[in-house]
């Protein structure tokens, strides 16, 4: 079986992205290509209080949606690789908080 | 299980009530690797329509649906893709009693074979350091005020100096302190270290270390200028750093029984260790069929060292054997497998990340900048080059004398017909091929196999008329285990009034090949069963009934025969079309092949054939793991002065194709190594105290480069005014692609 991966716009598989944010600010937007399949969802669970990952389909005009609360159903684009915009929104924190936010394509919603 | 029955009255006075009494048996065959824990949760439903004929002979027509979700361990939100294949049989004997009720007694058996497919979930992670507004403002200023404290069992202990060190080559963090007062630290004390930054209105305390314990103590008695100048120095090690020192209770060997023989009694006794009381510590041999690197990492770092999971971008290659000894520990058993990749390891919470340093930044994304105003000095050094033009690679010999490399190729499109006319087509192909070579002549390709192919056909109007994608699969022993093929065709769309044609997934075919040991020679394998399941678009015509049901036929056949009528009562669904099951049986010097084709649309088999094939289609899966081969890689330089001493690369712990790929990269790195950076900073920035952070470093005239933090060192010292001064140094390596 071939293995899939979320890649950047040059086709390089993404493993992790480092960010440093002040509370109540957004990160720059990262554009990534997501292989879609029927029954799969783009999620960012579990939800944490300090920050959230938001995404929307590139050039769709849609609002960014919190993937931990509203995962994106990839079924409509089954078999295609679709470009998505990702960004991180930092919520209220105290001092310095270090978090890891996994973005996954998975069968579970 | 729920069962609903609908009685159709054929005119006789049958009572409407029906009672079903029976049992349901559920049996499933499940193949699970040792690292998986599985549970089934689901339900079965059976719906059947009962038609009672004159003589009380009853027939049931219905469908059984089974749905289940397969969850890994107790992890939420982690599901596997699973195929359940099986059948149901339902038998019931109607017994009519005296005009009151009709009772059915029977049983339902359900058997299923579970095939676990690739897990299918993938993604990436954002590592985010979030600062509150006041702290962010304070860290942006050029004048900063620090404080630091040692916390022992919840109590603050005064210190005069502290050094916190995260070395490049170790996992945890070390803390050294000089106490300003009495020593309250015992061997069992739980120790933490906090840093504080003055925000203008309050101290913002940030924990840098927690759960550490005493490692060493130095008590110094001295005089200076006639006055006592005594000091107590303590060092601590944190829990994460200590985890790498854990070991199993006995020498433990993980091995793949498909490749390596089980240990003999002599081997067990030779490796046994004895205690003083003569009790034995017998080595433990754990078989793990199809073992791969992730299995070994999971055993070492999750089962052994207590992390929650291991995340890595290193190839998940097959591993024949991994040894965890009392002297080397869990980390020592894994290091030989990871060493060729030169990875960096860092914890995130209770997860362990092991990543290669060659992990380029995402396209269009910039690293965090380290401005020149933050830096006291930069040591940007190119490590000593070892200009070599050749590398001697030690490879594991698979016993067949053969290995392969994989390439992605895209031959030029092939056109047929006359351009601009209806018979013109253009076919483009994308393939991933395996090129098999021998160790005796590694640069000569002996045979080529296509493991992935995508074929796209366009018509004279540049419409894609078909796209077929096929991916082959192989197991850890390089045995062909089947393929998946998806066929997209430009077919009429029933949802449009004029049936305009769109590219749709017409068929999905999945073949699974099962292997078993040869009945006469356990060291050889034969194919025992081949299942080919075809699902696809089905035309359902509700206005054309056959045996009181809507007529169904494969959609592509309906298009060929002109049976599609847009705007009518026809619908398109996606479902099973046919299943071909071939069973193979070794019989003497022949292979008996029985082939059955089950048509799911008609509900009857299409054909049954039995063939006797000559020969013995078996393969030898065992190989001699002790043999090694040597391959010389060169840069291609020739001429006087280019013949230098050859360096060596040990790739015997890796599959030959991966070892060769890493060796080529190593040869390139020896000649142009990545630069190393050491940068003492003017301030302590707590958000930089993390391995794996990428930084863009600015020099005098521009950017020096992009670097990945591998370690850091910070010093906090009490000055004569009673305030702390703080300084940190980053050690980083150039980020290369």
Sheet having the most strands of chain A: 4 strands, antiparallel
Question: Which class of secondary structure composition applies to the elements of chain B?
Answer: mainly beta
Number of DSSP helical runs of chain B: 7
Coarse morphology of chain B: globular
Level of helix content of chain B? under 10%
Arithmetic mean of pLDDT of chain B? 76
Please explain how this structure is put together.
The complex is a heterodimer of chains A (109) and B (737). Chain A has 109 residues and is mainly β. Chain A contains no helices and eight strands. Chain A has strands at residues 16-22, 30-35, 41-43, 51-57, 65-66, 72-73, 81-90, 96-106. In chain B, strands 8, 9, 10, 11, 12, 13, 16, 25, 26, 43, 44, 45 and 46 form a 13-stranded mixed β-sheet that branches. In chain B, strands 28, 29, 30, 31, 32, 33, 34, 35, 36, 37, 38, 39 and 40 form a 13-stranded antiparallel β-sheet that branches. A three-stranded mixed β-sheet of chain B has the order 1-3-4, with no helix packed on it. The longest helix of chain B is centred in the C-terminal third of the chain and has 16 residues, at 656-671. Chains A and B meet through strand 1, strand 2 and strand 8 of A and strand 7, helix 1, strand 13, strand 24 and strand 33 of B. Strand 1 of chain A pairs parallel with strand 7 (122-131) of chain B.
């Amino acid at each position: 079986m071939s293995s899939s991966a979320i890649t950047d716009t040059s086709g390089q598989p993404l493993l992790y992205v480092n960010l440093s944010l002040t509370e109540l600010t957004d990160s720059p937007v990262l554009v990534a290509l997501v292989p879609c399949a029927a029954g799969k969802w783009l999620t960012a669970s579990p939800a944490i209080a300090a920050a959230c990952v938001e995404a929307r389909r590139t050039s769709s005009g849609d609002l960014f949606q919190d993937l931990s609360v509203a995962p994106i159903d990839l079924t409509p684009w089954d078999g295609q690789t679709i470009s998505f915009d990702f960004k991180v929104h930092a919520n209220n924190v105290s001092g310095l908080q270090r978090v890891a936010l996994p973005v996954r394509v998975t069968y579970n919603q | 299980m729920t069962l609903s029955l609908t009685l159709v009255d054929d005119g006789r006075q049958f009572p409407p009530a029906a009672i079903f009494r029976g049992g349901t048996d559920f049996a499933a065959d499940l193949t699970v690797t040792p690292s998986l824990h599985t549970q089934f949760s689901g339900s079965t439903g059976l719906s059947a329509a009962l038609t009672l004929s004159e003589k009380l002979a009853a027939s049931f027509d219905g469908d059984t649906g089974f749905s289940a979700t397969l969850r890994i361990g107790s992890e939420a939100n982690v599901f596997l893709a699973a195929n359940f294949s099986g059948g149901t049989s339902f038998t019931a004997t109607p017994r009519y009693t005296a005009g009151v009720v009709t009772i059915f007694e029977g049983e339902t058996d359900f058997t299923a074979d579970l095939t676990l497919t690739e897990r299918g979930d993938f993604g990436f992670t954002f590592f985010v350091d979030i600062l509150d507004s006041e702290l962010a403002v304070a860290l942006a200023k050029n004048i900063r005020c620090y404080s630091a404290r040692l916390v022992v069992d919840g109590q603050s202990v005064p210190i005069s100096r502290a050094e916190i060190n995260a070395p490049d080559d170790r996992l945890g963090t070390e803390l050294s302190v000089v106490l300003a007062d009495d020593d309250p630290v015992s061997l069992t004390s739980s120790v933490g270290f906090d840093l504080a930054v003055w925000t203008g209105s309050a101290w913002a305390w940030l924990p840098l270390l927690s759960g550490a314990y005493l490692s060493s103590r130095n008590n110094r008695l001295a005089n200076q200028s006639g006055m006592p100048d005594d000091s107590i120095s303590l060092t601590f090690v944190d829990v994460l750093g200590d985890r790498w020192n854990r070991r199993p209770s006995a020498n433990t060997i993980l091995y793949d029984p498909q490749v390596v023989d089980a240990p003999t009694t002599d081997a067990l006794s030779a490796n046994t260790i004895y205690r003083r009381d003569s009790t034995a510590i017998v080595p433990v041999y754990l078989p793990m069929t199809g073992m791969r690197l992730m299995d070994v990492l999971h055993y070492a770092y999750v089962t052994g060292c207590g992390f929650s999971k291991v995340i890595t971008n290193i190839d998940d290659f097959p591993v024949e054997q991994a040894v965890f000894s009392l002297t080397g520990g869990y980390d020592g058993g894994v290091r030989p497998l990871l060493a060729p990749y030169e990875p960096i390891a860092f914890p995130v919470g209770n997860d362990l990340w092991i990543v290669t340093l060659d992990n380029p930044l995402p396209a269009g994304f910039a690293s965090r900048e380290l401005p020149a105003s933050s830096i006291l000095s930069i040591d940007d050094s190119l490590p000593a080059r070892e200009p070599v033009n050749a590398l001697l690679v030690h490879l594991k010999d698979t016993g067949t004398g053969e290995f392969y490399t994989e390439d992605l190729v895209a031959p030029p499109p092939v056109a047929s017909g006359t351009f601009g006319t209806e018979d013109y087509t253009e076919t483009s192909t994308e393939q991933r091929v395996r090129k098999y070579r021998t160790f005796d002549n590694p640069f000569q390709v002996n045979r080529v196999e296509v493991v992935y192919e995508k074929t796209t056909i366009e018509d004279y109007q540049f419409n894609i008329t078909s796209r077929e994608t096929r991916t082959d699969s192989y197991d850890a022993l390089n045995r062909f285990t089947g393929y998946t093929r998806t066929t997209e065709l430009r077919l009429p769309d029933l949802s449009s009034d004029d049936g305009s044609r769109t590219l749709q997934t017409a068929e999905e075919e999945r073949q699974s090949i099962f292997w078993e040991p040869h009945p006469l020679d356990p060291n050889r394998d034969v194919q025992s069963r081949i299942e080919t399941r075809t699902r696809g678009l089905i035309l359902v015509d509700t206005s054309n009934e056959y045996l009181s049901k809507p007529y169904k036929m494969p959609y592509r056949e309906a298009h060929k025969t002109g049976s599609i009528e847009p705007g009518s009562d026809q619908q398109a669904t996606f479902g099973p079309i046919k299943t071909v099951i071939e069973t193979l049986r070794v019989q003497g010097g022949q292979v008996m092949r029985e082939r059955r084709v089950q048509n799911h649309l008609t509900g009857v088999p299409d054909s049954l054939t039995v063939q006797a094939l000559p020969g013995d289609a078996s393969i030898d899966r065992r190989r001699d793991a002790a043999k090694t081969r040597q391959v010389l890689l060169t840069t291609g330089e020739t001429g006087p002065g280019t013949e230098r001493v050859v360096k060596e690369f040990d790739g015997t712990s890796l599959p030959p194709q991966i070892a060769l790929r890493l060796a080529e990269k190593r040869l390139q790195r020896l000649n142009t190594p990545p630069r190393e950076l050491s940068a003492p900073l003017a301030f302590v920035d707590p958000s930089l105290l993390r391995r794996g952070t990428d930084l863009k470093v600015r020099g005098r005239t521009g950017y020096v480069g992009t670097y990945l933090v591998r370690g850091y060192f910070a010093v906090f010292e009490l000055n004569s005014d009673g305030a702390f001064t703080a300084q940190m140094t980053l050690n980083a390596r150039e980020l290369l692609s």
